[in-house]
Amino acid sequence: MKYEPSPRPIDCGGISADVNYVDAFTRADDPMHDGAHIHSFCEVYLNLSGDVSFVVEDSVYPVGRGDIIITKPNEVHRCVYHSDCVHEHFCLWLLPDGSRRGLPDCFFDRKSGEANLISMDHADREAVISAFFRLRGEAAREGEITVGYLAALYGILDTIDRHRHDTLPSAAVPEDLHRILAYIGENYNRPCGTDELSARFFISRSTLGRRFRDHLGTTPSEYVESKRLAAAKELLSAGESVQNTCALCGFSDYSHFIMRFREKFGTTPHRYSKGLSRRGGGDGG
Fold first, then answer.
1. Which CATH number among 3.40.190.10, 1.10.10.60, 1.20.1740.10, 3.90.1170.30 corresponds to the domain 175-278?
2. pTM as predicted
């Protein structure tokens, strides 16, 4: 399923913001789950309930009530459901200007897939939860930005900044999966199909598929493609041509690359590049 947030940004001091609240029963095996999320915004995910983990790049983070996951533009992430559950959560999307002013440095000053899970004490967890509900209420008002909206938004960002060093490590994954993920991270531009990975790492196709499904909530082919598409956005943002981007990211078929990019991001690589040029380069991160 295509996932590219298109909020109605509200300009406030160098950033644009939009918040979304979800409280829905979800089946673990629902085929309509979103695939990997790859977008041009910073994101703050706040968990309120649900038997879920949050995957960012190669890292798997168990999350519970009050846990926060932060991601930066084009950092591949997804939610993994371990059982049928009510998954209640907030997503706050933040689009900084070119200077990135208004956002804590912890969004950008780290390697992708590292230091995503912010740990807080009970008091700060409950304070952030309250701030998200206030932000949602103020965002529903029509007209100009309210003082309450700004207070809630910057209260959330200030709390994240104060806890920028209070991050928790990701959960351990099986050693064979860890080696496979490391290989894909360095070689996604080469053939990385299920057959190639099974042969290289002496693992059966069924075991390989089960490892990815149980720990990452996806298939090997979907995982590789998400890496390639994220890299494609980065290259296009840096000014690379569409044709070279296709080859550099490991897509052997040009028309397939165009189709998959459009399905994922709602636009073609050519239009995406033109949009960046009109904005003066860069896509928010």
1. 1.10.10.60
2. 0.86
